[in-house]
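Q: Convert this sequence to structure tokens.
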Amino acid sequence: MSKPDNASTDLDRVRKRLNTVTQETRFALIQDILGHPAQLPTLKELDYVNPSKSQTTIRQHLQQLIDVGIVEEVVLPKDRRQNDRPYKFYGLSEDGHAFLDDHGLLRAEETLQDIYARVEKTDTIERYQAAPRPQ
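A:
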């Protein structure tokens, strides 16, 4: 049995990533990440802007995006953490950003940020949005 060549493997990886990112919920999460002022929302912020989805569903879809290398979990260093403030965030990986850009999926980035800025937020979400984030 012969091994598939690199071109076939690369094509399979691109196909898998495109299938992953274009699924409705995952694509909405990517848009939410892009729209966030720091492009590093917390799970709670993603939950807030996706009221029809449970936190468990959001977490599962984030994990699928992490598994294909589009999103990464970013953790605030322990010495910068504050009580009652989030320390775990989700953002596009460098490779994920490049992949989305290569496939024309970042064109609305500025519009998404404008929309996110107009969303009415609770005090808790405002506090989460203002929390320190990793560089």
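The chain has a mean pLDDT of 93.
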